[in-house]
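Try this one yourself first.
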């Protein structure tokens, strides 16, 4: 709890202590009320990440299946009992489990926070009532309220600036990750599309050798069927490697972007709420600056001050 300034009402002024606690508690109540709606947006963003990841995992598993089929066909063409090993399906499924575990942890974290907010708001409202009972103005205490408000306003202005800068910084980092992901996604998409053409030269040479053998009967090469199966296997194996890189980069990027999104939202809503409260405390400062000529005015001023909180 805060301490009051020295005055005739006691060793420490109970009124300034109550006013400080009233302002701090009201700030916290408003922050919690806004945080509740912010968490809804955070959970919606998390679901968007999950939806986007499903497409990536589907594409990755599709590349695994295509590679498995190509290698199985090659094994048959070469009369092997087993195909060559590549990125196994369980590797992708393990990545899925890790990602879904992270999603579950985030959901639990924010669900628990919502429960904490409800409890916190109830506790703060009860404490607000208690602080209000301690706020009994006297002329001496009133003289101490203005310096206290000046101090609180300066401190809150600093907090607003800190939250604002934190939000901007998180947003800028978020955009940097988005820019990097966009560049790498497009680069890998291009490489994936170019893989068939990159391996086409080898297949064309094999076809030429086969044509020469048909004409001359010299140096029987690998059959065209085996050549085509080998080509398909090489293409799908390389594409799978690139899809794997792309999906892993996507997951790491989106997890980090989610963390930055949370930081941005937290800084943004705290700066917004405190700025709105700052306007209220400036109005309160103006009310307390009025000279009080008689006790009846003091009682009215006390009621006016408490109306800012109750």
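Now uncover the answer:
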């Amino acid at each position: 709890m805060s301490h009051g300034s020295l005055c005739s009402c006691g060793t420490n002024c109970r009124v300034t202590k109550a006013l400080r606690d009233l302002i701090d508690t009201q700030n916290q109540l408003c922050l919690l009320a806004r945080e509740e709606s912010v968490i809804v947006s955070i959970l919606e963003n998390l679901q968007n990440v999950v939806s986007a990841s499903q497409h990536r995992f589907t594409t990755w598993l599709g590349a695994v299946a295509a590679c498995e089929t190509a290698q199985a066909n090659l094994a048959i063409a070469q009369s092997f009992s087993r195909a060559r090993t590549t990125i196994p399906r369980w590797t992708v499924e393990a990545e899925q489990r890790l990602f879904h575990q992270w999603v579950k942890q985030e959901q639990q974290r924010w669900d628990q926070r919502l429960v904490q907010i409800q409890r916190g708001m109830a506790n703060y409202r009860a404490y607000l009532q208690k602080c209000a009972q301690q706020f009994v103005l006297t002329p001496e205490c009133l003289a101490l309220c203005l310096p206290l408000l000046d101090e609180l306003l300066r401190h809150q202005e600093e907090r607003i600036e800190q939250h604002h800068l934190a939000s901007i910084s998180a947003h800028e980092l978020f955009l940097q990750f988005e820019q990097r992901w966009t560049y790498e996604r497009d680069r890998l998409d291009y490489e994936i599309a170019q893989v068939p053409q990159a391996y086409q030269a080898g297949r064309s040479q094999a076809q030429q050798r086969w044509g020469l053998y048909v004409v001359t009967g010299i140096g029987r090469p690998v059959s065209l069927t085996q050549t085509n199966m080998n080509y398909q296997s090489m293409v799908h194996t390389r594409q799978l490697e690139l899809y794997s890189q792309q999906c892993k980069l996507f997951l790491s990027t989106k997890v980090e972007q989610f963390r930055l999104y949370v930081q941005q939202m937290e800084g943004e809503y705290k700066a917004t709420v405190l700025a709105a409260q700052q306007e209220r405390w400036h109005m309160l400062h103006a009310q307390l600056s009025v000279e009080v000529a008689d006790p009846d005015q003091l009682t009215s001023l006390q009621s006016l001050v408490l109306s800012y909180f109750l």
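Discussion: The helical segments are 14-77, 89-134, 139-216, 224-288, 295-306. DSSP finds five helices and no strands in the chain.
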